[in-house]
Amino acid sequence: MDSVLHTTGRFGPRTLLITAAAVPLTGWAVHATVLLKQIAAKEKDPLTGLLRRDTYTARARRILARHGDNTTVVMVDADHFKQINDRDGHEAGDAVLAALGQRLTAWAGPRAVCGRLGGDEFAVALPLPAEHRAERLEQLVRALHAPVRLDDGRLIQVAVSVGAATTDTLHTRDLAALQRASDAALYDGKHTGRAVLATTAHTRVPSINGRRMGRPGTSVWGQAA
């Protein structure tokens, strides 16, 4: 088979050589693309497109190390989510979770990391200067509370609780400590429709395995840590 393709161009005959080396290189490129997709699938939650817990944790720690006292850690919890599943069906619940993931990503921007920690609980770590925090958190609450329209036209009302902790206020860059404080602040503002910024008092809320004591599901874990 002739491996030389002759073409006629504006400047006369040109020759395009297709070498045998191109075939294995193409094969490796396809293999690499498939491998990258497999890695991405392991790192991301398929429903929301957000990072899974382990990947989120690793990248959030890098943001804390890089941006220091300008870093904010945000926790988000969907309110009455079980009622949505029970009343409207699990497909509606999935649509709400997917919408929350999209809204978090759009709000946070390219310099942030967003993760789904499990169920209806999400986290974001991002550089956010003090002078913009209140305004940006208000924007987040408004975005997350917008109703979700299903494919069949139904509107699902959405409510969330938001807590945030900042490295400069709490004087720590420890991600676990910031998330515990954010979680405690979130529950202080539960069902209020506003974001709550953690204070040093929130760092003293008893926790079980890194979660606020009294949070649903924590009673089975044993004594407060």
Tag the structure with descriptive keywords.
single chain, alpha+beta, 5-stranded mixed β-sheet, 43% helix
Give a written overview of the molecule:
The protein has helices at residues 22-43, 53-67, 81-88, 90-108, 130-144, 167-170, 175-188, and strands at 4-9, 12-17, 71-78, 113-118, 121-127, 148-149, 155-156, 160-166, 195-197, 207-208, 211-212. It is of the alpha+beta class. It has two domains: 4-40, no CATH class; 47-221, 2-Layer Sandwich (Alpha-Beta Plaits), CATH 3.30.70.270. The longest helix has 22 residues, at 22-43. It is globular and about 50 Å long. The termini are far apart. 30% of the residues are buried. The model is unreliable at 1-20 and 214-225 (pLDDT under 50).
Show the helix and strand layout.
Layout: E1 4-9, E2 12-17, H1 22-43, H2 53-67, E3 71-78, H3 81-88, H4 90-108, E4 113-118, E5 121-127, H5 130-144, E6 148-149, E7 155-156, E8 160-166, H6 167-170, H7 175-188, E9 195-197, E10 207-208, E11 211-212
Briefly characterize the structure.
With 225 residues, the chain is of the alpha+beta class. It is 43% helix and 23% strand. β1 and β2 form a beta hairpin.
Percent helix: 40-55%
Gyration radius over CA: 24 Å
Overall pLDDT:
82
Kindly estimate the percentage of residues that lie in beta strands according to DSSP. Answer: 15-25%
How do the helices and strands follow one another from N- to C-terminus? EEHHEHHEEHEEEHHEEE
Report how far the terminal alpha carbons are from each other: 73 Å
Sequence of strands across the biggest β-sheet: 4-5-3-8-9
Report the CATH architecture of the largest domain. 2-Layer Sandwich
